[in-house]
Amino acid sequence: GQRSDLIEVTHLQSIRKEYIGGLPDGIEFPLTVNTNPTNPSHVALKTAADDGIARPFQLQLPSGGGSLTFTFGAVVMGWNFPSITANEAYQAEFNLKITGTLDGPA
Predict the structure, then answer these.
(1) Quick check: bond before 62 cis, omega within 30?
(2) H/E element holding 60?
């Protein structure tokens, strides 16, 4: 998603405060994966976190009978391994920040 700042544009002839929306800013969100250290996608996420360069992403969400697809650029801001417990998948959490245009759903 995205969020815009609120900019006050009240002037001397205003009878109430006036506002406009600022430039949209992509949200920051976590991406949790059942990790496999040799999976090329997981290696690419770790590399992106290390170099700080925005990468293209595609997010596909299930929808009743189909799917919703969003495409966007994002910077991987960091990653960590949540606590590991017995009888659970080994997971990694990556933190992404959307940058530029967010397209979708398609």
Answers:
(1) no
(2) strand 55-63
Dihedral sign of CA atoms 62, 34, 93, 45 in order: negative
Other Cβ atoms less than 10 A from the Cβ of 23: the count is 8
In what order do the strands lie in the sheet containing 55-63? Answer: 28-34, 91-103, 66-80, 55-63
Residue 96 exposed, middle or buried by CB count within 10 Å (0-12, 13-18, 19+): buried
Residue 64, pLDDT above cutoff 80: no
Residue that is written with structure tokens 């940058």 in the block: 99
Tell me the whole-structure pTM to 2 decimals.
Answer: 0.77
Name the DSSP class of 88: S
Return the closest-CA partner of residue 79 out of 91, 89, 61. Answer: 91
> In the structure, what pLDDT confidence band is assigned to residue 7 with cuts at 50, 70 and 90?
very high
